[in-house]
Write a sequence for this structure.
C-alpha cells in the first residue's frame, strides 16, 4: 500500500505574529526535513518571501480562504481551520496536520501520526482552565445535539490530524461556524460567550461528542506528554515539568496564554505585584526559552527572547535556560494558587450547566443551532 500523501497546514494573517510563524516554520524545517508544508499567509511581503526561500518544503498558497459569510478581504479570523483543511484534501492530500502559528516543535512530528489508521482523528487536550470541563456532553447538548460519548476534557485545536475519512466532519464543523448563532456570539467579548461558542474548538468538541460523529476513533495528544499548553496559571504544571526533566520532552509547545513576541514589557513592569509576576512567568515560558536557538535565523526582532526583569534573569541563570526547569519555582506557586481556586472552579462548572429545551420536531443530531439554549455566564479565572 502506498504511503498517505501528507502535509502540514499553517494559517496566519497577522503581520504582528510573523515572529511566531517563522519560529514554527524554522522548527519544522529543522526537525521534519522534507515534510510538505502548506502555508496560507496572505500578507506575506517581499522580505518574508526572501526568508521563506530557505525552506523549499513550504508552499505558499496564494488563493484566499473563505471565512464566515464570504470571502474575507482583510483577514481570516479564528474560524478558517475546516476550510483550509478541506481545501488541501480537495487538492489531493490524504492527511492534513494542522498546527497553530503560536506552536513550535521540538522533534520530528511524523512518528506521532505514522502508525495511525486513517479513521483516527487527532486533537489535543485542553488546558487546565475551568472551561476545559465538558460535563455530560455539555457542548453537544448546548448545540441541541444528541450526546453520543463523553470525553474526560474538552478538546483544544492547536494541533489536529485530519484525513479524507473526516471530510464530513469538516463540512459540518464549517457549517456550524457559519451559523447565525455562532457568528453573532463571536462579536461579543470572550467572557460573554456561552461555553459551546467560545471558539472553534468548542464547536469541534460538540460535534465529536455528538451521536453524529461519536463513531470516529479519537486520539488526544496529552498535555505535558505530547504538548505543553502554556496557559499561565492553567498550564505547564509542576508534575508536567518534572516528567519532562526526568524523561522525554513534548513534541509541541503552544504559547496559548500571552504572546511574548507582542508583549509590552516596559509598560507592564510598573503594574502591581500580580501583573508583575504574571509577566515574569511569561518571560520564563518554555516557548520563549525554546525559541532562543532559532533567533539568529529569523530575520526579525528577537529582543523579546531576552530576560526583561531581574527575577526572570535570575531564574534563567539558575536553571541554565532549561525550558522545564527555569519556571519550576513559579509553577509550584501557580499550582498552589490553582488548587486554592478549585472551589471557585467547581462553582464555575455549575454556572455553565445549560437549561436546554429540546425541539422535538428536529431530526436526530440536526436540531436547531443553540436557539433555545439558556446559558449562564461565568467569569474566566485568569
Amino acid at each position: 500500500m502506498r504511503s498517505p500523501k501528507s502535509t502540514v497546514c499553517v494559517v496566519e494573517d497577522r503581520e504582528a505574529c510573523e515572529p511566531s510563524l517563522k519560529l514554527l516554520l524554522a522548527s519544522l524545517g529543522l526537525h521534519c526535513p522534507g515534510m510538505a508544508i502548506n502555508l496560507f499567509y496572505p500578507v506575506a511581503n517581499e522580505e518574508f518571501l526572501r526568508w521563506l526561500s530557505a525552506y523549499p518544503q513550504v508552499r505558499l498558497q496564494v488563493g484566499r480562504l473563505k471565512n464566515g459569510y464570504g470571502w474575507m478581504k482583510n483577514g481570516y479570523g479564528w474560524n478558517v481551520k475546516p476550510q483550509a483543511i478541506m481545501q488541501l484534501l480537495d487538492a489531493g492530500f490524504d492527511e492534513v496536520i494542522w498546527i497553530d502559528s503560536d506552536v513550535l516543535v521540538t522533534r520530528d512530528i511524523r512518528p506521532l501520526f505514522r502508525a495511525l489508521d486513517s479513521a483516527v482523528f487527532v486533537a489535543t487536550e485542553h488546558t487546565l482552565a475551568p472551561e476545559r470541563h465538558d460535563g455530560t456532553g455539555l457542548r453537544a447538548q448546548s448545540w441541541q445535539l444528541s450526546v453520543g460519548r463523553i470525553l474526560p476534557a474538552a478538546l483544544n485545536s492547536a494541533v489536529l490530524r485530519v484525513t479524507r475519512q473526516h471530510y464530513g466532519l469538516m463540512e459540518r464543523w464549517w457549517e456550524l461556524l457559519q451559523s447565525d448563532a455562532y457568528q453573532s456570539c463571536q462579536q461579543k467579548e470572550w467572557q460573554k460567550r456561552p461555553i459551546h461558542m467560545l471558539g472553534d474548538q468548542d464547536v469541534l468538541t460538540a460535534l465529536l461528542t455528538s451521536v453524529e460523529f461519536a463513531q470516529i476513533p479519537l486520539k488526544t495528544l496529552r498535555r505535558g506528554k505530547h504538548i505543553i499548553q502554556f496557559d499561565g496559571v492553567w498550564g505547564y504544571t509542576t508534575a508536567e515539568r518534572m516528567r519532562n526533566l526526568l524523561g522525554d520532552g513534548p513534541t509541541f509547545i503552544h504559547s496559548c496564554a500571552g504572546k511574548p513576541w507582542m508583549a509590552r514589557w516596559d509598560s507592564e513592569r510598573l503594574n502591581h505585584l500580580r501583573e508583575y509576576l504574571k509577566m515574569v512567568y511569561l518571560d520564563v515560558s518554555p516557548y520563549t526559552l525554546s525559541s532562543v536557538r532559532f533567533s539568529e535565523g529569523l530575520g526579525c526582532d528577537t529582543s523579546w527572547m531576552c530576560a526583561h526583569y531581574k527575577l526572570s534573569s535570575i531564574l534563567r541563570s539558575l536553571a541554565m535556560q532549561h525550558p522545564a526547569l527555569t519556571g519550576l519555582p513559579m509553577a509550584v506557586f501557580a499550582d498552589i494558587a490553582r488548587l486554592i481556586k478549585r472551589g471557585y472552579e467547581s462553582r464555575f462548572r455549575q454556572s455553565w450547566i445549560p437549561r436546554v429545551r429540546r425541539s422535538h420536531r428536529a431530526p436526530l443530531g440536526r436540531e436547531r443551532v443553540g436557539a433555545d439554549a439558556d446559558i449562564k455566564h461565568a467569569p474566566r479565572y485568569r
Remarks:
- DSSP finds 15 helices and 14 strands in the chain.
- The first strand starts at residue 6 and ends at 11.
- Confidence is low (pLDDT under 50) at residues 68-76, 355-382.
